[in-house]
Structures are given as structure tokens and as C-alpha cells.
Amino acid sequence: MKMKLFPVIALVGAFIVACDKDIQNPLLEPYAVSSLDENAGQWKPYILSSVSDIVVPEPKPVTDPAYLKELDSLKNYIAPRVTPENRAAVEHWGAGAVYRWNEIARELSARYNLPPASNAEGKYPVPDAANPLKDPKFPFANPPYAARALAYLSVAQFDALVTAWNYKYKFNRKAPYKIDSGIKPLLPASDLPSYPSEAAVVAAASYTVLIAMFPGEVPYLDGKLAENKNAMIWAAMSTPSDITAGDALGKAVAARVMAKAKTDGMSAANNQSRTPAMIETAKSIGIIEPWKSQESPLRPTMLPTYGEVATWNFSKETMIAMRPPKPWIVGTPEFEKDLKELQGIQKNQTREQARIANFWADGAGSYTPPAHWHRIGAEAGKDAKYSEVRMARTLALLGTAEMDAGIACWDAKHYYFTPRPQQFGVKTSVGLPNFPSYTSGHSTFSSAGATVLSYIFPERKNEFEAMALEASNSRIYGLIHYRVDCEMGVAHGKTIGGYAVQRGQTDGSGL
User: Fold this and answer.
1) Which run of H or of E encompasses 407?
2) How much is the pTM?
3) Which of 178, 232, 329, 428 is close enough to 174 for a disulfide, judged by CB 3.0 to 4.6 Å?
């Protein structure tokens, strides 16, 4: 009997150039998870009101002739025909679907992190979602965009997986190799029920989010979707009916998640008509020299109204209440002290300062600070041998904190509209951001990320906090920010991360 697999589509654009050190991905071995997290079907989702919102049909009994044919095909048709290329795909996806799709999203963020160039009219055209491959390509995956894409990706994965866990243990269909001992899996065996397939759930949910975020990458993502699902059949971890159920569930959950994305205010985040009023507000509270572009032609500030996008873990009223206080004003002794520090570094920058500045630069062509912290979180989850659902929880807590950090930081930047050091003759070698200075995005993103990861992995708290402090200091060493920008960004990020931690403490996961 022949078993039709999910078609593997040619991977158009599959080779993403790794132009930055941060997007070189490690080789990982599949592992047996430290816990199956059997109660994850009771954890609290983000978008769904209940893990029963999406109905998954009951599977056929394992004695049903149709299911027995699936098992027979795995054992006698598919297994003997698994090629070395199939095995390589199995090894790759065996590292975890959540991990791999997060990796894909980070790589795409790096690929699309290219600021539009000016045209013959001296203007900077805005990327067009309806024509994503037309120059300039859509999206421009700047830090706020990357943070948002990863947040929705991780939330979709999490909500889909807690729903899947609910049905897995409700129906309790064992893995194929548990039912037929003649079937030999190519990945570590597990007692996790196989219906619906967790890999298919993640693949479908991730695909749905990423084709919306990166619409020019549909052929590439089609290929990844098919390969991920096929790999679980080649590995004898799932039957086609497991995959089909998981695919439908993942798509249904992601559709709910993306419905929220369409109404979160992102479509109005680049309202340049608002900037004159923002500058006047900044002047009214004492900012005597507002930020202005140092490029020629003048480049508009990036996403001036991103601060109005909907947050995840706190209200807008709370965000305004925790907005950092007014920074040093140009000409005050405090401002002059911070400026002199930068001037001194410019004259006598040490090799170690230069190394730190370059390592954390995360500029054009990289996947930016939010994705940098997603990589740190994903690798921590791998080190802890997390299940798919707990890995998704880790990245959802991290992702929502990073998006909230971007929103709150951009609110502060465009409320105070403070000038960058470059307006006072300070030169930088790590890129020139086209938006106001206070507070530091690197500091805010990094402190929020470290706060969340320190909660999830308390034994590594000192390590994460040291990373966040180094990332913050890197902006001083790179002559991008004054010290007050960074110190207040760290404090702000810690508060923002704390709201994600509060969410985690009440989600039913036992942490």
C-alpha cells in the first residue's frame, strides 16, 4: 500500500545569508524531555478563553482498519524508504518544532532588517505589504516589528499547544511505536499521546503567523511547513491522521491570534503627521533641543506612534504611570557629565568596550535585541530539556514582555523626543538609529528579557542579569546613548518584565 505524504515544496529562498554573528545557529541533537507536562492542558492560554474553544474530533480507535493501515504503511512502506535526506530533516526538526520555528522567525527578521533607502525625490518610501518583494521590501523588520512578530508567533504556538495537550490526554491515543512494536522511531521515544501531533500544531500555527508577518516568504514557509510535518512521519512519531488533526488545530488557533493582531493598532504605528505635536509636547515639558535626524536627506523617526499599539501584560494607563521620569536637560550639569563620559570614550575606547559595543550592536542585517533575547531563551529551554509546550510558554512570556518593552520604550522616546549624542558631535561606529534617544531600547528590551528568564531559570539569574547589563552598557561604549538613557531603560525593562512574570505565576504551570 502507498501512503501519500504531505508534499515537500521546493524551498525557494531557503538559504538565508548569515551576515551577522547572531544568526549563526547551533547544531542540536534531539533529546528526551525532562517532563511531559501532562497537566499543560489546564494552563491558561493568552487569546483563547478556554482550551476547549477549538474542537478537535475524536480519533478513530487504534483497532479501526483505517488506523491499522496507517501503522502498516509506517512500518512496511515508509520506514524502508527513508532516505539520508529524510533522516537529516528528522534530526533537524527533532530539536523541537517550537525551537526551529522561532529560529526561522529570527532569521527572517534579520533578512528583512534593512532600512529603506532614499529615492530620487529625497524621500524614504514606506514598504508595501501588498507588494512585499518590491523595493523597499516589506517588512522593515526593525526592533519593534521583530518583537511583535515573535510575540504573536510564540503566543500562537503556546495557545495551540495547551489546546493540543488537552486533547492529547482526553483521547490518549498512544504513539505508533507504542501500539506496534515493529515500528522503530527515529527520535527519542516518549509516553506523550500522539493525537493531535504537537509538531503539526506548531508548524501550522507558526506558518499562519509568519506568512502574515513576512508575506514575501510564502514559498519558503510552504516548504518548511511540509518538511516539518513529513519529518514526524519519516521518524514514525506520528501517523497522517495525527498530523492532519494537528494541522487543523494549529491553523484554527493561529487564525484567532492573528485576528487580534489585525486590531492591535500596528497599522497606525507610523503616523508621521503626529510628530510635530509630539515635539511641541516635549518642548512644553522642558526639552529645549529635541531629536532630529542626522542623515541626509533627513529620515523620519521610526514608528512614532508604536507606543499606542496594544500591550499584552498591562494596560495603557499602567504604561503611562510607569513611564520613566524626564531625563537630563541639555546644558544641565547632569547632562554635561553624561556627554563628557561619551566624549572620553570616543577618545580612548578600550578593546573590551569596542568588543562589547559590536557584539550587542544588533543593527541592520541582524535580528535585533528582541530576537537576540529569544535566542537566549530558546537555548535555555533546550538546555533544560523542555517539552514543546513548556518551551512555548517560555517564549510566550518572553515574547510578550519584549513586545511590551518595545511599546513602552517607544512611548517614552516619542514623549520626551530627546536628542542623541550625535547632535553634539559624538561619532559612532555601530549604526545611527533614526529615533529619539531616551530611553535606550537595548536596555529596555534586555532588562525585560533578563527579568523573565531569571524567573523561569532562577539558577541562571546572575548570568541573565549580567548579559542585560552588558547589553545596556554596550550602547554607552558604542556612543549611541547617554548613561541616563541606559540606566532608566534597565529600570523600566525590569518593571515591564515583572508584569510578564506575574502572568506566568498565575498561568497554572506550577512555576
Assistant:
1) helix 388-416
2) 0.94
3) 178
